[in-house]
């Protein structure tokens, strides 16, 4: 099923005594599918916006339409419990005296008959069958969140809201649950609005990104369009990057490497560390601008194995006056390099030049 877009507009001031505190002022038209990340520093308004969408915060000037249904308007306000949404918090908040199976059946009481019939499929989707007889205190943090995700699906929501669901997990538990979030996106086709301050989570999971600053939308768009510009935000100068799709072509067992082909640039190949991916598998890659350098020639006497011929198509200012961002193009694929202004001048670089991108590091993010 294809879902219509989500239209949200909220203008609200939050006061602390007589002093004006935080003000939220957003107007967004969001995709009706995939993972939509709300990203920004602490205090930027991510959770406040999520609560407005859920109906937990009231905005007199708020408007919200989901899948063609008006949830809030000037003369209408649908209460939270009447909105067909699921809200997943940082903590799973399972009932401690009930087993996993009993926790799920408790949620079934709110669900329709059709949703009840789908319970088995939901248990399979979240990999919960081995855990059904266990109690919450016997589960890891990642397992608890998987139960919480399954519980949220039982009501057949039209929208899933997630407020930093991985924030309380350590790195190992995050890696355990991330594949389930990816599966959830592709298996249900329900739009997910996902709050995070972790740029790595956003790069891996998001299809669309809304960046908030001081309660306003600083930038928004598909993840591939937003991440190259993320360096413009305070404290994120080194996080500018591109997200690329690639197909695994071959494995070099001697050197423990994989050869991949960039999807949008079929003549461009990269060597990556072999992490056990399958031949033919599609990977999502993140290339940080700081991990790319530029050369005028193909330096084969370098330890950098990934070198690709490309063209300079644009430059972009950097918050650090000593640095510059250089946008590179290979067929239908864009790369981004963050180099010093001095190097840019000494190499006499300019828009339109053919150069070699030297890629020092590539991260597989799925």
What features would you highlight for this structure?
366 residues, alpha+beta, Rossmann fold, OB fold (Dihydrolipoamide Acetyltransferase, E2P), 2 domains, six-stranded mixed beta sheet, five-stranded antiparallel beta sheet, 9 helices, 21 strands, 22% helix, 38% strand
Biggest sheet strand order reads: 7-8-9-3-10-11
Counting DSSP E segments of at least 2 residues, the number of strands comes to: 21
Q: What form results from the Cα inertia axes?
A: globular
Counted by DSSP, the helix tally is 9
Instruction: Give start-end ranges of low-pLDDT stretches.
Output: none
Beta-strand level of the residues, as a percent range?
Answer: 35-45%
Mean pLDDT: 89
CATH topology of the largest domain: Rossmann fold
CATH superfamily of the largest domain: P-loop containing nucleotide triphosphate hydrolases
Structural class, by secondary structure, is alpha+beta
N-C termini distance: 25 Å
CATH class of the largest domain: Alpha Beta
Biggest pleated sheet: 6 strands, mixed
């Amino acid at each position: 099923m294809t879902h219509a877009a989500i239209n949200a507009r909220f203008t609200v001031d939050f006061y602390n005594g007589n002093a004006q505190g935080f003000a939220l002022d957003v107007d967004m038209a969001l995709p009706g599918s995939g993972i939509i990340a709300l990203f920004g520093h602490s205090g930027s308004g991510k959770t406040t916006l999520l609560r407005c969408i859920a109906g937990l915060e009231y905005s007199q000037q708020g408007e919200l339409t989901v899948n063609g249904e008006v949830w809030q308007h000037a003369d209408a306000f649908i209460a939270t419990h009447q909105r067909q949404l699921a809200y997943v918090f940082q903590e799973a908040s399972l009932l401690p005296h009930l087993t996993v199976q009993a926790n799920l059946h408790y949620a079934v009481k709110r669900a329709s008959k059709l949703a009840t019939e789908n319970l088995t499929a939901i248990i399979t989707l979240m990999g919960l069958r081995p855990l059904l007889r266990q109690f919450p205190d016997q589960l890891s943090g990642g397992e608890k969140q998987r139960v919480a995700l399954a519980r949220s699906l039982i009501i057949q929501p039209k929208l899933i809201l997630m407020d930093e669901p991985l924030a309380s997990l350590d790195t190992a538990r995050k890696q355990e649950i991330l594949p389930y979030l990816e599966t959830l996106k592709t298996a249900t086709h329900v739009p997910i609005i996902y709050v995070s301050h972790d740029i790595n989570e956003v790069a891996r999971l998001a299809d669309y990104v809304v960046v908030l600053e001081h309660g306003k939308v600083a930038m928004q768009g598909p993840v591939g369009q937003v991440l190259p510009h993320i360096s413009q935000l305070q404290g994120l100068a080194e996080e500018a990057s591109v997200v690329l799709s690639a197909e695994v072509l071959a494995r070099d067992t001697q050197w423990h490497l994989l050869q991949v082909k960039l999807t949008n640039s079929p003549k461009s190949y990269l060597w990556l560390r072999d992490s056990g991916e399958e031949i033919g598998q599609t990977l999502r890659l993140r290339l940080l601008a700081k991990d790319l350098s530029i050369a005028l020639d193909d330096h084969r006497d370098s330890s950098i194995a990934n070198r690709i011929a490309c063209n300079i198509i644009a430059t972009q200012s950097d918050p650090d006056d000593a640095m510059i961002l250089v946008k590179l193009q290979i067929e239908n694929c864009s790369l981004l390099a963050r180099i010093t202004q001095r190097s840019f001048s000494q190499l006499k670089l300019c828009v339109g030049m053919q150069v070699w991108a030297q890629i020092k590091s590539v991260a597989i993010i799925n």
